[in-house]
Amino acid sequence: MKLDIIGDIHGCYQELQTLLKELGYKWENDQFHHPEDRTLAFVGDLTDRGPRSLEVIRFVYQMVVEQKNGYYVPGNHCDKLYRFFLGNNVKQQHGLETTVAEYKQLTKQEKDEVKHMMITLYENAPLYHVINELQTVIAHAGIPEKYIGLHGKKVKTFVLYGDITGEKLADGRPVRKDWAQDYHGNRWIVYGHTPVLEPRFVNQTVNIDTGCVFGNKLTAFRLPEKEIVSVKSSLPFVEEKFRY
């Protein structure tokens, strides 16, 4: 099995298509595939902040649900959009407002289609994917070894938000512990959530959220090769968004 895991996209559809081309994916007979039979995976946070969130939803839905040639795990932004589509009273901030603004421009039929796609993606996704063939776990904000194989509220909170303490930084972001420093498992943990300037390798973990929506780049991690492939963002660079 050969896998290409894509970091947080956040509505950067143009960069996603550039990265997929760089990775060797092609359209043939209305199917998107790789000549070496590689499979795509997505670490979540498909939407919000970037300019073309709905096209990202459509593409990931096509790969994961229609073609059944992709893996998807939800991120915290996916969770929030899902709750918005269910009709919950969700605050439209931290990027959700950009996705909602796009959504409001659609026709009734288009709205129904996009809502169906996102709800279907979310409701059929596991909290995290364990891919035994590659000794790999894909989880949006990471996962400690003790939680692999478990589910429940604590696991969901960790997978969506990371190892949060409940405290807040001056800019309102949650304080997170660096859980990867304490990971000593044999499986790769591939995750995103916290923007980094370069893919961050710690023990057998790699953070591939290289902050495309904040002007840095969109990154893929290829297995079994353990290779990084990135493309530059077209958006303005926002230095303060990067933790490492």
TrEMBL record:
Coiled-coil regions listed: none
Domain of life: Bacteria
Matching CDD domains: MPP_Prp_like (cd07423)
GO MF: phosphatase activity
One Pfam family hit: Metallophos
Location of the Calcineurin-like phosphoesterase domain: 1-196
Name recorded for this polypeptide: Protein phosphatase
NCBIfam families: PRK13625.1 (NF010148)
One cellular component (GO) term of this entry: cytoplasm
